[in-house]
Amino acid sequence: MTSTSVKNNLLPPGLVSNLQEVLLSRKGGGGGDGDQSKEASDSTQPSSSTSDSDVVDAIDSSKPIVLVTNGDGIDAPGLSYLVQALVSQGLYNVHVCAPQSNKSVSGHSVTLRETVAVSSAEINGATAYEVSGTPVDCVSLALSGALFSWSKPLLVVSGINRGSSCGHHMFYSGVVAGAREALLGGVPSLSISLNWKDDSQESDFKDAVSVCLPLINAAIRDIEKGLFPKSCSLNVEIPTSPLSNKGFKLTKQSMWRSTPNWLAVSANRYPAGHFMSNQQSLGLQLAQLGRDASAAGAARRLTTQRKNLEIVESVGAAGKAGPERVKKYFRLEFINKEQDDVDEDLDFRALENGFVSVTPLSISPNTELEIHTAASDWISSALHQEQQ
What we know:
The protein is an alpha/beta fold. Helices cover 31% and strands 21% of the residues. It contains ten helices and 14 strands. Helix 8 links the parallel strand 7 (189-194) and strand 8 (233-238). Helix 8 packs across helix 10 (368-387).
């Protein structure tokens, strides 16, 4: 999958004003005289006869619109295999709006007071954009009507994520946040994750798609019929060996989480601006620290991809100014520990036992039992019809 620059006939008018300055700076390094500014404006302004009509013409109105996003970034294999499978069925108008880089643990963060850049991306059979923001930015933008010619797809699918999002990891998870944002916008959604381990292979994503595709098809079918559970999103967790799964199991969100452990490290161990490559097994990585610091100092972002490990650089002012400012470096380790809870209906326990865990999530208070019952009834009926 390769990204392309912004194309004139693919950029809706609503985004032009936001991106003109970026495009101009790329052409001439910013600034420039009035003629150059006018030239940039003319080159990016889509004509009324091509922009919207071209997009509308590309949509088969007889097919439902499915929006796909993720947390791992637009080039991630989980998204690639999923979109390929949806497109190959020929049943849906598939649109993609995904982060241009890995935002898998950005939580439900949004980008404020900054310009978000959007570029078209080449994905066969789908209309796709990559966004310099979070999964929540992607879904929010897609549903706003500013990017696509529509503002409400039939279903939003977020995934497939590399690493599980069980328990408290749902609060960190960008892939779950993307689905949650859709639900906030009144659109049914699914978030999907693969329980990635050290010996997992990229082809496991293809197997994961074959496992979850019947559930996606059933959801789309029953949304059209008004049978899909109302006001809930389904978080789907696929076991490490997807094709060896024991079946789908309705589960409850557990309290499971890794234990955070902060360690002070020497300043020369992880120099400023240092980034580490990674093998992620927990589905956790620290995406971004808040820019506004506490009185102790300011934090800046540092990503890692080492098993069960995130590295964070924290710079504390400690009340001193100038060259006497104190710098402190810390390493954050997420440590696995044995879970005492033996409830077989919890998400992480079902996943460990080889089941495909399906957990209904709601944004409405005091409706957990009602939604859980509705989801249970729907899953039983939907999977039974798919097997016929």
